[in-house]
Structures are given as structure tokens and as C-alpha cells.
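In this section we turn from sequence analysis to structure. A common task in structural bioinformatics is to predict how a protein folds when a small molecule is present, because the ligand can shape the pocket around it. The inputs are simple: the amino acid sequence and a SMILES string for the ligand, here zinc ion. Study the lines below before reading on.
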Amino acid sequence: MHVLHHASQEEIYGAWMIEELAGHGYRLSAGTLYPMLHKMVEDGYLTVRTEREGRTIRKLYSATEKGRRGLAVARERMRILTQEGTGR
Ligand SMILES: [Zn+2]
């Protein structure tokens, strides 16, 4: 879900995402992240485009409309959970 959050703000790519998540304390390997990104593309939450930079081809991911909606729903759920947690 955190991936979607960033993908809704800017285009992201795998190596950057791994570093970004490491900054949050999540240790994610490329072997875990890439299948996850691939799945999100298949499910329609992300779109991917490839960009060639010299010899390397970079895959840039960004959130689709469906991805943004999914994120909004998740945020709302989180808000309700948080309120229930502190409301007692
Ligand atoms: Zn982050």
C-alpha cells in the first residue's frame, strides 16, 4: 500500500522504491518487490512504462485511477480503525 502512495505522487522505479522502503525500516529485496509491482500492474493498480537510459532500461511505475481509488479506500479504513482505537 505504501508503494501505491508514492506511485500516486510520482513515477517510481524498483531500485528507488527499495531504498525508500529501507528508509521506513522495511527490508525488501528486488526478488520480493518486482513480483509485487508486476502483480499490481496486472490487477490494474499501476501502469508501467519503460525508459531507456544508455544501456539500462528502467521501468517506471505510476498509479492508475483504480490505484488511487484503492488508496483512498485504504486511507479511510485506516482512519476508522485509528478512531476506534483511540475512542475508548
Ligand atoms: Zn515512503
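DSSP finds four helices and two strands in the chain. As an exercise, try to locate the residues that line the zinc ion site and compare them with your own expectations.
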